[in-house]
Amino acid sequence: MAATAGTVSRASAPERPRPLMQRIGRAVLPAYTGLVVIYLFLPIVVMAVFGFNDIEGRFNFTWQGFTLDHWQNLFNRYPALNQSLLNSLTVGIISTLVATIFGTLIGLALTRYEFRGRTPLNLLIFLPIATPEIVLGASLLAMFVSAGIGRDLTTITIAHIMFNISFVVVTVRARIAGFDRALEEAAMDLGADEWTTFRKVTFPLIFPGILAAALLAFALSIDDFVITQFTAGQTVTFPLWVYGASRIGVPPQVNVMGTLIFFIALVGIVLWVVLQRREMTAVPTTVDH
Amino acid sequence: MPEADVRLDRVTKRFGDFTAVDDLSLTMERGEFFALLGPSGCGKTTTLRMIGGFEEVTAGTVYLGGADVTELPPFKRNVNTVFQNYALFPHLDVYENIAFGLRRRRVPEGEVRAQVKFMLKLVDLPGYEKRRPNQLSGGQQQRVALARALINSPQVLLLDEPLGALDLKLRKQMQVELKRIQSEIGITFIFVTHDQEEAMTMSDRIAVMREGRIEQLGRPEELYERPASSFVAGFLGVSNLLDGEVVGRHGELVDVQLGDGTLVRAPAAASNGDTHVRVGVRPEKLRVTSSHTEAPRSVEDTNALEGTVLDASYIGVSTQYIVQTADGHKLTVYAQNLETSGASEALADGQTVQLTWRPQHTFVIARTDRDVDATPQYEEGQVPS
Ligand SMILES: Nc1ncnc2c1ncn2[C@@H]1O[C@H](COP(=O)(O)OP(=O)(O)O)[C@@H](O)[C@H]1O
Ligand SMILES: [Mg+2]
Fold it and tell me: Residue A148, by phi and psi: left (phi above 0), alpha (psi -120 to 50) or beta?
C-alpha cells in the first residue's frame, strides 16, 4: 500500500511511525464504535428518560419536567396495563420453560442419535424461524378457528412455545455440537450411570447454551406482537396494550415498565456472560491426534 | 498357569459392512503389561472399547476375571480407562476430577481426601488439587487422567495411546513412569499404541494387530527375533527379506536356496515345514566386510551373500549401509562403529562386499499373498532410533 512506502526510508529511526492506514484506523475505529453504540442505545435511553417526564395531558412526546410519580404509581393508574403485563409475563415464563425443556431435548436428540428423518428434521426446525411471522400468525388463527378453539392466554402460550422451540433447538444444538462425547464415556467409565452422567457432566457443560436459549426465548415472547395479535382473542398482552394505547397516548408507566424489563434482561445477560467467562477458563486444551 | 484377567472369545465388531475387529480371541493375564500394537485403523481402539464397554460387540464374548461382561454397561465393569485425549472434566478441578469415581460410590469425604492425596503423590502432582484441567500441561493432564482411573482400584486399566499427544522427551519419561506405577500397584495394564518401540520397551507381551486380527502374539523379543510374517517383521523394526525354497535339512538347520542360487541356512523349527519360504535377517545381525579381505567361509556355520554398497550413511553409533545383491535385492545393514571413527573409514559406495550372519539369526516365514502387498510399506524407513 502507498502508505507503507513512506516508512521504509525511515526504518533506521529509533521509533518508527505507524503506517498511515493504521493511524487512521486507530482514530476511526473508536469513533465508529461510539456511533454504533449510540445508535443502539439512544432509543433505550429516551425510553428510560421519558419514564420520568412530568407530562400534562395524554402525550409523552416533549420533555416537561422531572417527576418520580410514574415510578411511585406504576401499578395504580391503569389496571388494564397491569393485567396485560401479567399476561405477558405468564406467557413468557411458561413458554420459555416449556420451549427450553423440549428444545434442549430435541437439540440433544438431533446431535446425539442417528435416526430416520434426522436430516429433514434438522432443516425443518428452522422453518418457524424463517417463515414470516405474519404468515405464521394468520395460519395459526385459521387453525384455531377451524378447530373451534376459543382464543385466549392458552392459545397465545401454545403459539409462543411453537416458535420458541425452534430458537432453543438452534441455540442448544450449537452448544452440544462442540461437546466431547469422550467426557460422557469417561463419566460412565468412572461408575456414573446415564442419569448421573447427564447431571454431573453433560448438563453442567451445556448449561450456558441452555441459559442463552432461555433468555432468547423469554425476550422473544415478552414483546411478540404479530403472532400474539392473531392468537389472542380478547386477551390483551403488554405489547398489544401499548399498541392500542399509542393512538390515544402512551402513558409514562409503559416507559417505566419497559425500563424495568430492560434491566431484568440486562441482569440475565450479565449472569450469562459471567458463566461464559468462568467457563472460558475451563475449556479443555485440545490436544491433536 | 497365571490367572486370566481379560479374555476375549471370538469377538467380532462390525460397523455396517466394515469389520473392524474380526473373530479375535485373546487372553490377558493378571498383572501383566499387555500392548495392542498395530498401524492406524487396525482395530486397536475398537478392541479396547469393547473391553471397557463403550462399544457393543457384534459377536463373541468378553470375560473379566472369568465373568461374562459382554452385556454390561461401562459403569458396571471393574475396569477404568485412560482416554486418548484424557477426557478430563473441564468444569471440575483436579481434585474433583480424581475424586469423581469415589463420589459415585459415596465414599466418605475423609477417605476421598486421603485417597486423592495418595494418588496425586503416586503420579507426582502434589499440590495441584485446585487447578483446572486447562491450566495443566499435556503431561500433567495425562497424570491426572491416570490418577482419576487408578483411584477406583480397577481390576484392569485400559490405556488408549496415552502418550500419543506428548512430545518425545516427555513420552520417554512417561513410559518409565507408567512402568513404575504399574509395578507399584500390580494391576493389569492393556496399552494401545502404534509405536513399536514404545510397545517393545514397556510390555510384557504384545499382540500385533492387522486388519482386525491378531497377526502375532508374544514377548517383545520373540516378535523381534522370530516374526511370524513379513508384516510383523516389517512393523517391528527393519528387516531384510529374501524369497527362497527349502531344499534340504541338516539336523537343526534347513537349507534354503535363494533366487540367485545361493544356499543359506536357517533354524529348522522356524521353517514350520513350508517349502516356499521367505528368510529374513535383522540389519544389526549382518556383518559387512570388503570381499577381498576375507575369503568366503563355509556355509556350515555362516550364511554369506555377495553384494555392492549402494549407500553408506554414518549415523553416529552405527553406519547404515544399503547393499545390493547380485539379483537386485537391497539389504540394510547396521554396522556398529566399534573400531571405525567417522565416515571416512566406512566402506565406499560401489565397493563389492560380503555380508555374513549366523544361521541362528535367520528367521523363516511362510510366503503368502497377504505378505506381498504388506512388505514394501514397512520394509524401508522404519529405523529404530
Ligand atoms: N463408530 C465407527 N463407525 C464406523 N467405523 C468405525 C467406527 N469406529 C471405528 N471405525 C473403523 O474401524 C476401524 C478400526 O478403528 P480403530 O479401532 O479406531 O483403529 P485404531 O485404534 O487401531 O487406529 C477403522 O477403519 C475405523 O475407521
Ligand atoms: Mg486408535
Answer: left
